[in-house]
Amino acid sequence: GNSVTQMEGPVTLSEEAFLTINCTYTATGYPSLFWYVQYPGEGLQLLLKATKADDKGSNKGFEATYRKETTSFHLEKGSVQVSDSAVYFCALTDPIKAAGNKLTFGGGTRVLVKP
Amino acid sequence: NAGVTQTPKFQVLKTGQSMTLQCAQDMNHEYMSWYRQDPGMGLRLIHYSVGAGITDQGEVPNGYNVSRSTTEDFPLRLLSAAPSQTSVYFCASGATSGGGDTQYFGPGTRLTVL
What we know:
The structure holds 2 protein chains of 2 kinds. Chain A has strands at residues 3-6, 11-14, 19-21, 23-26, 32-38, 44-50, 56-59, 62-65, 75-77, 86-93, 103-105, 109-114. By secondary structure, chain A is mainly β. In chain A, strands 2, 5, 6, 10, 11 and 12 form a 6-stranded mixed beta sheet that branches. A 4-stranded antiparallel beta sheet of chain A has the order 3-9-8-7, with no helix packed on it. The N and C termini of chain A lie far apart (41 Å). The mean pLDDT of chain B is 93. In chain B, β4 and β5 form a beta hairpin. Chain B is built from no helices and 11 strands. Chain B is globular, with a radius of gyration of 13 Å. Chains A and B meet through β6 and β10 of A and β4, β5, β9 and β10 of B.
């Protein structure tokens, strides 16, 4: 079956540091890949996505590139802020299956940015 | 446009009690789903619906029922609550069942079963 593996946290950084969260996946065919973010006490919201190989998703200074050859979708941000403290989830949907909008999530990575 | 709304925000149940978690969306979305979030396990799919009158099971459906009588509403029923159902529950919706579609999540319901 499909699966998503992401680095365990917590990741603690200082403000303006570089952030990388690794994400690798196992899936049949060509899944769509997502990063969702969950701020404290809130639901999940889409951060960025990529729907085909070599696509780069970007939003709010975050970027991730869909690498089919390494089955990866690593999240990066060049200079984090305290407001980026949250839990980040990597996820995929499998377009081969019917009802292809079913999301498979990684375990989440908690990021804490200190001033 | 309220997006996806969920009620209640918090709930405490005793083992064996039943209850319904409410979910509604005002975006005329075709696809709706329920996930549970447990520490270190990400979110796992409980049930989903591709349109009114159509539902199907996800990864962890046991102990839960759903129905979809309207496009807007997708309630989740716990038939006989168990401590293993202590979790945070999220409802989500998407415009279509297409795999690349963005899904929108509600704020969650934190459920404790004693």
